[in-house]
Amino acid sequence: MKYSVLGVLGLVLTCHLTAPAQTVKTSKPTSQKAAAHKKNTPVAEAAPAQSSAATIIVPSWLPPTNPVQPTATIVTDVLDTKLDVKFDWAKQWLLGNALLTLRPHFYPQNQVVLDAKGFDVKSVRAVIGGKEKNLNYTYDKRKLTISLDRMYARNEQYQVRISYVAKPNELEAGGSAAITSSKGLYFINPLGTDKNKPRQIWTQGETEANSCWFPTIDKPNQRMTQEITMTVDGRYKTLSNGLLISSKKNADGTRTDIWKQTLPAAPYLTMMTVGEFAVINDTWRGKAVDYYVEPGFQGTAKAVFGNTPEMLDFFSRKLGVDFPWEKYAQVAVRDFVSGAMENTTATTIRQEWVQLTKRELPDQSYQAEGTIAHEVFHQWFGDYVTSESWSNLPLNESFADYSELLWAEHKYGADAAALVQQQKLTNYLTEAESKREPLIRYHYATREDMFDRHSYDKGGRVLHMLRKYVGDEAFFASLNRYLTQNKFSSSEIAKLRLAFEETTGEDLMWFFDQWFMQRGHPELYISHTYTNGQVNLRVEQRQDSTFTPIYRLPVTVSVWTGNQSQPTDYKIVVTKANQMFTLPASQRPNLVKFDAEGQLLAKVQEQRTQDELLFQYYHARNYLQKYEAIDQLRGKLGDLAVSGMLRNAMNDPFWAVRLAAVEGFRRYKGPEGNAVRKELRRAATTDKKSQVRAMAVTTLGAFLNEDFSDVYATALNDSSYLVVGAAINALARNPSIGTRDALNALQDTHSPVLLNALSNYYSLNGTADQYQWFLRRMNDVSEDELYTYLQNFGLLMQRMPPVERDKGIQRLEAYARTHPNITVKLGAYRGLSSLVPSTATMKATLQDIRAKEKNDQLKAAYSLIQ
Question: Which of 190, 643, 805, 858 could crosslink 89 through cysteines, CB 3.0-4.6 Å?
């Protein structure tokens, strides 16, 4: 799965969670690591003993103690599921008939307990020799407990048929920041009353929501084959797992499709989709590769999804395991509750990410491509081999996350891969400001807690370090061993470690223990001196070793001396909290660069002079080294050498270097002012990358009391929505009468980027006319953008007479109380909170919203908003 909304809410919590550290008195400091333990045993964390002898400061990022969450005990195996379903659109019900083939896992059984949430159960029968007999059962709206006709041994299969009605909208609301709802089955625009939205049905099973629409044992350590029969109106297309083995038109205008998957997968990976889709056909080695989009986007679907066959080929070759499933399809759906979901053979993706117009493609195809690669890789890691428990979720998500780097490296080169590495590391370190958990978490409050920047971004960076340590050949050979040994089964972290140990011959417990089983990351301070023909390199680990280990860090140090075009590389292994390394050097080095490959998952502070950083930029061997020099020196732009470096970087072949340079000139006051502004004007209008043009417009907009209206006017006609949006945001701070008509002409845009930019402009410069515009366009704004849009609406209403605000306040309040997306709720709440000083009853309204909110993450966010 690739989540989407987690970032916004997570960022809000990270930015505001500044609670002071707690002080705990103990008799002696807690050890860095738990005592030696057997392999396969999770690290046990002991609570500090209470005493007045010493004091330990408990950091604010240390999460509360949560219960142990063991892997589900397997009493019964679900071997096969056959479903026959119809839909009542008006009531949003599924009318279902399920035939389950089951078997006791080991011990004899005379009953079976199934997950079945919110059903009306009509009948339960045993199917014996082609005949059926009623079975006794009890049902509490969550669990269906069936008494079998006799005791069955572990080698005996039996079948149970269940007739039921699934009513997902009658379930208690659930969900999290990553997966915003947990009702499993979703009817979109079921009555067709919204003329701007198609009618669709789709499902979302992760984590354990598929039992909201069919009875099963809804745990990731189950595996089953399946067959799903769907009867729908003849105008709709259907999609499910496996192959379409039958499609029959019925006399009443309906059609019955049968989808069959012959290879076993976990129940949460089962899916259905119904809607009016255009299907674009592709192939890979004779297997169908299909793209389902709304008809209006069929012209760009191949441009968005067209690299899928190459991804299947690349990953098959790298892993030495061919894509194993019958086919691969991807479907874009409306109002999806996550970013994307790797259902076996049929990935679901939120339509905002992949249904792109020709004009949107240059700006957004890179995000779509990363998502597509992520979900393709899940077909091996997550589907072919599945985490046995949600505690082991990184075995699915870390690999899918890392695939984004692997694909960028393969398709676009080392710099593109380094950019992915940088972005992902930043994501994790941002989250780590407010919480730090082990990657493999046997303690958590809810399953959805696992879907965070740890399981994704941190896990991907850990895999990158593992790859760098063992080498490419051993890394992919180990992955081949892991996949081959555990195919079509569930797995845990020990199996991955053993696959690497069996391949390399090395005991890697130290690596897996410190990176997978313990929380935190290294916080390094690096310094060096030169004396008597040698470099003395000091590495200090400054992280809190009470709650975080002292790490063993294999790393490369590069030393440039004299006129060397290439440095001398030294491999060192850091093992202590404070450690000195001596490296030979015939003369004082021009540069000593720690972690020259940029592989470490760490927060690094490295002591270097301005001259060393300038040398680093001009002799950099990769994007990360160039970016680091730009980032470290942007505060010294008054120096001609530094501003010259940034001007040089504005012409770099790699667009992200140019982007960093352009951003570095924001509010520049140095001696090359005119030349810099000229370069920024050029970048804003002619750079071939839209992201760089947009950043140049934004940078010019940050020069206070300066007129760049001609640049903004040109940018308003740019082919890129990102650039147009940047111009609108720049004009929001520096409004120009000459561009007002051009802005108003954009009011009916369908671009999410422009809608948000216009909402920002009107929040600062709007009038009563724009009040009506906010209300009119609100339903057109995607859930991803509503968070900001609603806050901007609140800012506009501050300037409206109180008697004219009622409709807007009612709309915000409705979103804050009832919207299914918790990020939208938060945006509406923040929009209302901006009206507190000027609306007498608003404090009471906000207090009531807080009191009635059931989502703990939202309640935490609300408590931080003044």
Answer: 190
- Distance between CA 198 and CA 163 in Å, rounded? 30
Q: Say if strands 489-491 and 385-387 run parallel, antiparallel, or are unpaired.
A: parallel
Report the pLDDT value the prediction gives residue 46, as an integer from 0 to 100: 37
Neighbour count for residue 537 (Cβ, 10 Å):
20
CB contact at 8 A, 310 and 328 = no
Give the torsion sign (CA, 697, 698, 700, 706).
positive
Does this chain's domain 1-68+403-520 share its CATH topology with 277-379? Answer: yes
Computed over its alpha carbons, how large is the radius of gyration of the chain? 29
Distance CA 144, CA 138 (A): 6
CA distances from 608 to 526, 574, 640 (A): 9, 20, 19
* Token pair for 611: 């001259």
Specify the CATH number for 277-379; select among 1.20.140.10, 1.10.390.10, 3.40.50.300, 3.90.180.10. 1.10.390.10
* Nearest partner of 587 among 613, 568, 562, judged by Cα: 562
| Integer Cα distance of 677 and 109 in angstroms | 78
**Rounded Cα–Cα distance for residues 428 and 803 (Å):** 46
Write the CA distances from 75 to 377, 602, 724, integer angstroms: 31, 43, 59
The half-sphere exposure of 397 on its side-chain side, counting CA atoms within 13 A, is 27
Kindly tell me the burial class for residue 427, based on how many C-beta atoms sit within 10 Å of its own C-beta (0-12, 13-18, 19 or more): buried
Nearest to 516 by CA among 438, 572, 620: 438
- Give the Cα separation of 259 and 244 in Å (integer): 4
Q: The sheet that has 578-584: what strands, in order across it?
A: 578-584, 534-541, 523-531, 603-606
Say how far apart CA 734 and CA 46 lie, in whole Å: 57
Closest CA to 664 of 690, 685, 639, 688: 639
| CATH number assigned to the domain covering 523-600 | 2.60.40
Q: What angle do CA 284, 225, 2 make, to 5 degrees?
A: 60
Listed by start position, the domains of the chain span 1-68+403-520, 277-379, 523-600, 747-866
Architecture of domain 1-68+403-520 in this structure: Orthogonal Bundle (1.10)
Burial of 41 by CB count in 10 Å (0-12 exposed, 13-18 middle, 19+ buried)?
exposed
In this prediction, residue 64 carries a pLDDT of 86
What are residue 747's phi and psi, to 5 degrees? -60, -25
Block residue for tokens 């400054």: 542
Q: Tell me, what's the pLDDT at 27?
A: 34
Q: Give the span between the Cα atoms of 120 and 134, in whole angstroms.
A: 17
DSSP 515: I
Half-sphere exposure of 602 (CA within 13 A, CB side): 29
How far is residue 438's CA from residue 531's CA, in Å, rounded to a whole number?
Answer: 41
H or E element in which residue 498 lies: helix 493-504
Report d(CA 125, CA 161) in Å as an integer.
Answer: 5
DSSP H/E element including 154: none
Residue 704, helix vs strand vs coil:
coil
DSSP letter string, 542-566: -S-TTTSPPPPEEEEEEEE-TT-SS
Q: Taking a C-beta distance cutoff of 8 angstroms, is the pair 349, 364 a contact?
A: no
- Which string of b and e fits 268-295 if b means at least 16 CB within 10 Å? bbbbbbbbebeebebebeebbbbbbbbe
Give the per-residue pLDDT at 16: 40
CA-nearest of 490, 270, 318, 476 to 395 is 490
- Give the number of C-alpha atoms closer than 13 A to the C-alpha of residue 385, restricted to the C-beta side: 25
With beta carbons less than 8 A apart as the criterion, state whether 539 and 574 touch: yes
Q: Which residue positions in the chain have pLDDT lower than 50?
A: 5-7, 11-53
Per-residue model confidence as pLDDT tens digits over 127-151: 999 899 999 999 999 999 999 999 9
CA distance 669 to 683: 19
pLDDT at 21: 45
